[in-house]
Each structure stands twice: as structure tokens, then as C-alpha cells.
Write a structure and sequence with these properties.
alpha+beta, 7-stranded mixed beta sheet, 3-stranded antiparallel beta sheet, 9 helices, 39% helix
Length: 241
């Protein structure tokens, strides 16, 4: 491992459109992603830096919206983070690009109490209900749920029966990114699932549709702020149907 680079460690519970991560913070770089992130400072104050800087007191949680650049610190602190994207509940989207805000105490307590996949999905559903989430375009939702090959924006437009320009408008509005970036996010999810299944980095890269292992590593660093070896290798994984 490179000097001065601390690896992340902990556990990851992974479902469709969501993940619950209990982690000891390692080294990362500022990054943003399609998912909304709710992070709980477990033992000590949590430092948020990036598009906005703030301190999250121990026992409190912060909501970092989709597309907000951020980095967590300090290294060694324990954090519980819930990642939630529109694929969790087809047809639901949350606000994009808003400044980080502290979660209500009752919601933070509920996040702390999650002990199973059923708990996690229940908490996420309740959170969406309270957040007055808005619907994703039905044509886009159906296309993303289809088993077709969605490796290109053109393929996604065809399955959704949309023109390329209309697809760009809808994806940008509902996910906050252009179609190509949304497809990269889905690629990364497929690759991480392959890692969870016991595959190596090369197998994960192939499962995600990346050109090679280096391509997967670069995308992981771009979207998650860490490389697979420093950010994922020391985690215990659990998948939830």
C-alpha cells in the first residue's frame, strides 16, 4: 500500500438501489455519485469537506444529496452510511445537488438501529415517504428495469422509446447526470456485485462491462473516491434480495 494511504474497512450490506456501509474511514478524494448518502457519526465528530465543509457531531447524521462533491474524515473514525438511489423504489427521485443538511434526530436514531436487510429497506422506504420524493419518468423506470443490454445511451433511448435529446433531458432531470454517466453508475454497481460474489478485480471489471481492470479502478476512484483495493478489499459483504 502507498505510504500515507489508509485503507477502508468494515462491512457492506448491498441491496437493489441501496447499500448500508459500516466503515472505519480510510483515505479518499472528493467525489460525487448518483446515490444520496446519509452518514451517521458513530463515535466521534465526522468531518465533511468538498462542495461544502461541515462538522457532524457524534450521534448525528448528515444527508449528502446526489451530485454533491464530498469527502469524509477523519481517517479512523467510525461512520455508518446509507446510500440510496432511484433504483431502490422504481419511479422515485430525490432532490439533486442541495447542500448537506443534518437529519432529524428520530431519523438518525432509526439509521443507528438498522440490524437487518428488512430493517434497511423499511428505513429507506420511510425516509422516502417523509422526503416527499418525486416520480422518475415512467418510460425511463421501465427501461432501467428491463433485461436489455443498456451499455450505451442509444440502447437506453431505444428501450425507453425516446429520442436521444429527450432522454438526455429526462435523465438529467431525474438523476442529475447525462445518460452516459448514469450508465457508468450502473456499470459500477454490476462490478461491485461481482466482487461481492467472490470474483477478483478482473472478473468484476468484465461483469461491469469495463474495458479492463484499470478502467474499473479509475471509475471506482471517480465515483466513490477510492480504488477497489484500498476502498473495498477489507470489507465483509452481505447481499440482500
Amino acid at each position: 500500500m502507498t505510504a500515507g494511504v489508509a485503507s477502508w474497512s468494515g462491512s457492506i450490506m448491498l441491496g437493489t438501489g441501496w447499500a448500508l456501509i459500516d466503515a472505519r474511514i480510510g483515505t479518499s478524494r472528493p467525489h460525487s455519485h448518483v446515490a444520496h448518502q446519509i452518514s451517521l457519526a458513530v463515535e466521534r465528530d465526522l468531518e465533511i469537506s468538498g462542495d461544502a465543509d461541515m462538522i457532524v457531531p457524534a450521534g448525528h447524521a448528515v444527508v449528502i444529496a446526489s451530485q454533491v462533491r464530498h469527502r469524509l474524515g477523519p481517517p479512523g473514525a467510525l461512520v455508518r452510511s446509507f446510500y440510496l438511489d432511484p433504483l431502490f423504489r422504481v419511479g422515485t427521485r430525490l432532490s439533486i445537488g442541495s447542500a448537506p443538511v443534518l437529519l432529524m434526530p428520530v431519523e438518525a436514531a432509526g439509521l443507528c438501529d438498522i440490524a437487518s436487510g428488512a430493517d434497511a429497506k423499511r428505513w429507506a422506504s420511510d425516509y422516502l415517504d417523509r422526503s416527499q420524493a418525486r416520480p422518475v419518468d415512467a418510460r425511463l423506470s421501465e427501461a432501467l428495469a428491463a433485461p436489455d443490454d443498456l451499455s450505451t445511451a442509444r440502447a437506453l433511448a431505444d428501450v425507453a422509446c425516446l429520442s436521444s435529446s429527450r432522454l438526455r433531458e429526462i435523465v438529467s432531470r431525474d438523476f442529475g447526470v447525462p445518460p452516459a454517466k448514469l450508465l457508468q453508475w450502473l456499470q459500477l454497481q454490476r462490478a461491485v456485485r461481482a466482487l461481492v460474489g467472490g470474483g477478483g478485480l478482473a472478473d468484476a471489471a468484465a461483469a461491469g462491462g469495463f474495458a479492463d481492470q484499470s478502467h474499473f479502478t479509475r471509475r471506482c476512484a471517480q465515483w466513490l473516491g477510492v480504488t477497489p483495493s484500498a476502498g473495498l478489499s477489507a470489507f465483509a459483504f452481505e447481499t440482500v434480495p
